[in-house]
Amino acid sequence: GGWLLPSPPPVFEEGRAMEVLVQREQRAEGVRRVRVTALGPSHMVLVLQDPAGRVEEWSLASAVGVDGHRRGSEGVVFTFFTGGAVESRNEWKFWLDIRGHLPVNASVYGHYLDFS
User: Fold this and answer.
1) pLDDT of residue 106
2) What is the reported pLDDT for 46?
3) How far apart are CA 100 and CA 103, in angstroms?
């Protein structure tokens, strides 16, 4: 079970939006680089599902590498970005090198914090 607390509906200010831009380029034989630029709030998350291990390299946490971050048989990775001012639009850039042409499931989302 859960708890529901009575409250007024949220007020969304203008300009509170998120945009995700994706560019693809061919790298070595059978490897493509996917460049992602997320424009949005100060807190954003990448959820990556790669059970076959097709993501070979990335620009996130390079000291550990992709394999050090995969969890469980589903190969799910959660990467959290925080930066910039809460009231400004922030930019998060990263890339993934993916072997083969099959898709890798990925989702980028963000949330705004209200400290007023």
Assistant:
1) 92
2) 92
3) 8
Cα distance between residue 110 and residue 42, in whole Å: 8
Structure tokens at 94: 């990263």
Beta strands across the sheet bearing 19-26: 19-26, 31-40, 90-99, 55-58
Query: What is the number of helices (H) and of strands (E) in the chain?
Result: 0, 7
User: What are the C-alpha distances in Å from 62 to residues 2, 18, 25, 86, 103?
Assistant: 39, 26, 20, 27, 22
pLDDT digits (tens, 9 = 90+) for 23-74: 999 988 899 999 999 998 888 999 988 888 888 888 987 655 555 555 666 7
Cα–Cα separations (whole angstroms), residue 11 to 27, 58, 77: 45, 37, 32
The tokens for 72 are 């469980």
95 three-class SS: strand
* d(C-alpha 38, C-alpha 114), whole Å: 20
Q: What is the Cα–Cα distance from 41 to 51, expressed in whole angstroms?
A: 29
